[in-house]
């Protein structure tokens, strides 16, 4: 029986895991290698190679109502999209409120996690840690690895001939970036157009002599601000939209999306994306289109090679006098502390059952939390994983036998492994899948019969984390009120200047829901299947 649980990492996933352990009557000990909680959200000027942190100017891409822990909303006066300092403050509030810090051992590095000799019977692990130069060995009944996927910088220098042998400028990874001051007056080439590449290009354009942004991907750029000024994720991430995507042919869904994306600006004109492309990525950036339009950022194709001071691109063009090449090429995950037989079997999150459990283990007492990429908040997904995992450890939730888990994992993996492929999953799809396993998924049909107002808000409104606290273990008495008041909390920080003709625009959402009741009755039954 599981009682003592080791939690590795005190970021968002680690703090949620500690809380979930306590809720299930388990005894967690959280090991954090740095001097404070917060994980990547704790900014530091240090460029310590063992620790990844956000850069100075980072603002969240997901809104506060869609990013909070499911039973602990952000303060209503916090803005919808927050600077990293507010996110860290929120983590501290969460830790204090649920008394988590007494279970966290700071400046304690985990050196190894190995099966005990009697693992097939006990499922126990030997965990070796080091603090102040002193090593200590512990025995735990289960381990939750909460180190995330921002660990080892991915720097594909071999793919760019000349970058190591000829190029004489500065070359660095975005992990080393802290602010724009070191780049003043320089000509900078940013390689990679993910969220980080887009953000850094925009920021550097304010001080650099010129910024070039190189990409090989078709990329759709979205704004955080959607219809009527509400956050994009609150408007778009709904069960109604999720159902439509499931019902409609994928080609039609893609066409509708592309038309919507192009309603802001024509991506083909900007060289970003073509509606004919079947493979594409989406990034959040409110300023990149203007930077491209004003010429402060210049979009370029993939780099073919580097010379001493220039970059030659695949279209045959050359940009001279490049001072800095900044690789925004992402990260690789690694678990160097896991014993070889376990760690080597984890190629990516599809090597894990439900992206959590290594299926080959005789006892399911090791869980990888937060190794996911979702179309919404990873923090919310990690908390849901932790709720299910601790339920498994406590004996409330059951897993299928290892053979069935292994079969499901093999079915989901492609026959040929592709380098750097880590599929982004639907936020609602993944959350609902894990919620079903944990017994906490709300029933729209049942709510339509017992609480129509709440059912409409759940189905047509944002699929916010509070929905997963309405039923099942760990249900929260404040979940209903949080759902029905989420639009008001979104508007609250904007009420710094109230005009005479101001009205509560969120009330129009309620009227829309009432008018849509017949559709909800039909769609709700389809959705429940």
From TrEMBL:
It is found in: Endoplasmic reticulum membrane. GO terms for molecular function: flavin adenine dinucleotide binding; N,N-dimethylaniline monooxygenase activity; NADP binding; trimethylamine monooxygenase activity. The keyword Transmembrane helix applies. Its EC number is 1.14.13.148, 1.14.13.8. Its cofactor is FAD. GO terms for cellular component: endoplasmic reticulum membrane. Gene3D superfamilies: FAD/NAD(P)-binding domain. This is Flavin-containing monooxygenase 1. It comes from Tychaedon coryphoeus. The gene is Fmo4.
